[in-house]
Amino acid sequence: MVHETSVLVGGKAGEGINSAGMVVAQLLNRLGYYTFMYYDYPSLIRGGHNFAIIRASDRQIGIHRDAVDYVLALNQETLERHEDRFDERTVRIFNSDVVRDEGQGVSVSESLKAENAPAIMGNSTVIGAFAKAAGIPWDTVVNVFTRHLPKGTQQNLAVAKRGYDQVAAVNPITPVGDRCCSLVSGNEAAGLGLVAGGITAYVAYPMTPSSGLLHFLAENAWNFGVSVVHPENEIAVILMALGYSYAGRRAAVGTSGGGFCLMTEGLSLAGMAEIPIVIFVSQRTGPSTGLPTYTAQSDLRFILNAGQGEFPRFVAAPGDAGQAYYWSAVAADMAWRYQVPAFILADKTLSEGMYSIDLEKLPMFKTGAYHAWDGMEQYRRYAYTDSGISPLAFPGAAGAIVKVNGYAHDASGITTEDGGIVSQMTKKRLLKGENLAAGLKDYDTVDLAGVPSAETAVICWGSVRGACLEACEALGIRMVQPVVLSPFPDQKLRESLKGARRVIVVEENATGQLAALLRLGGFQVDATILHYDGRPLTPDLLKAHLKEVLQ
After folding, report:
1. SS3 string of 225-272?
2. Cβ-count burial of 357 within 10 angstroms (0-12 exposed, 13-18 middle, 19+ buried)?
3. Taking the model in full, what pTM does it have?
């Protein structure tokens, strides 16, 4: 029997909805549950409806569900907007100062006045009431507040206790164990992976939904030994990062689609000059500004083809926090081992979603050795080798003149327009791509889950993995997730699809970008399920779509 519960916290911007959701997630974490939190907010400086959905389960999960068992409403709009998520069993806890409803109301204003507390602490009253309704011991509330609300802890607790004392335990949540594990966002997991992969410099201009990665690495720069820089724009970002790499520092940048648009000339420079660089791109709804705080998977073609000319690249699209950690480390390693741009392609759901992850069980990642100059012969930055990978030396190395060039060049980096040399250097760059593809054969570039022997297979990528995995398990379907999208894992994908008579591709865009890529590669695609309203697919919604397709 699966133990599971779901909680929605809603209110207006400025009421600390995200923080309240995190506290609720930590309370459920202390009951032994794995949790996932989705945070929904408009792109407004002030105002608008914000809400967080916290789902808790006794098994690992990667997405929220539609229905909720508890709603914590700080305003009337929360109940009205989310009415379709409730049923007769949903416990309604609300701020009785501004909400009229049948359920358990608590007066936020009275709690704040009694404790002389600021308005931002009002959500603590409702959280306290939730804890009591859910049968969570007060000692657990104290532990969570003390650990996760270091500022104003005692005052927050006093406000929460007033909410706790105003209601009754109406739907106790059964503990399933001790404290589960750490809660991290996908951005934070990617940051840990970059550090594990040897990154020592991170350069970024804030752009939702990648900004959390910049904040995380900046806050922990000293502990991680990472230089974190926030330049004036995205063009400066990639050029500064390329400068770091040229000087011998493993560098990464982070952005979203609009910011990456400005980086494409720098990307081409990295391709021609063969400078290693890691690029974290977190997708949001476009085109242009689109929906800055909502999700999409509509930049796949862009990432695979960005930049003029032809040069190899590595692209990984992780589907949850664990994969974000691992493949970010791999991306850092691949960039330096093969001297290519390496992409981590995320999206808002993954970047800002909060996942339960056991940090102590993360794999120990060991970076591979890059091809370093041995100092024995004259240094040539673009020396032709059987692998296409030239030896690396950095400015200041004794006996080496380190010349990189974005113009067509010879083996020493000297500009040339000689047709024979241009052809040879082009072949050299493409040869790196062939060796990159060969080097990935030892990695699990395709994840096979669900019911692996089923004759119906669903192919998905990125954060859609969470909904696909649950829907496929429930319907007895095979789930296939290509994690690496360049070089495309053709052979491993074909092996994962052996015996599949029907193939359905699920993605969050309007044009079926992965489906088109599969068809170009000669793969069978019988149907597509495309979702593009900016909100993530949930298991219930995907199951309904799959049932329609399978009829």
Report:
1. CCEEECCCCHHHHHHHHHHHHHCCCCEEEEECHHHHHHHHHHHHHHHH
2. buried
3. 0.96
Instruction: Say whether the peptide bond before residue 118 is cis (omega within 30 degrees of 0).
Output: no
Q: Give me the residue spans of the domains in the chain.
A: 4-180, 185-361, 371-443, 446-550
Q: Which residues contact 515 (CB under 8 A, 6 or more apart)?
A: 505, 507, 525, 528
The three-state secondary structure class of 447 is: strand
- Under DSSP, the state recorded for 57 is E
Pair 350, 64: CB distance under 8 Å:
no
Distance (Å, rounded) from C-alpha 469 to C-alpha 2?
A: 16
In this structure, what are the phi and psi dihedrals at residue 66, rounded to the nearest 5 degrees? -75, -50
Quick one: fold of 4-180?
A: Pyruvate-ferredoxin Oxidoreductase; domain 3 (3.40.920)
Tens-digit pLDDT profile for residues 222-273:
999 999 999 999 999 999 999 999 999 999 999 999 999 999 999 999 999 9
The tokens describing 216, both together, are 């995380």
CATH level 2 (architecture), domain 185-361: 3-Layer(aba) Sandwich (3.40)
Common-topology check for domains 4-180 and 446-550: no
Pick the CATH number of 446-550 from 3.40.50.920, 3.40.50.300, 3.40.30.10, 3.55.40.20: 3.40.50.920
Q: Which pLDDT value is given to residue 177? A: 86
